[in-house]
Write the structure tokens for this entry.
Amino acid sequence: QVQLVESGGGLVQPGGSLRLSCAASGSIFRLGFMGWYRQAPGKQRELVAGITGSGSTNYADSVKGRFTISRDNAKNTVYLQMNSLKPEDTAVYYCNARYTYSEGRGGSWGQGTQVTVSS
């Protein structure tokens, strides 16, 4: 079984920065796409940023130029650097990963980490 553990959320003032981390553990043969999603109260979960196994990235229009996704394949970890944070970035952020593991192909979600942007 593959687990994703997130860290790095918290309370930050507008204009501030946070860095989220998500580490995958388990019988992983290969990690494929990894992404960060977020869900604000009363809204649907949305993709914030994604990165493929080869390093290609994509971002939601609302975060382009402010957020950067990266990964360390040796550590099975994906990061989300969030700069110039705005109150509308407040949400629970979830990590998602797709992989090949001992039982075939699968996908997992992290438990979520709260990001609150407020003065």
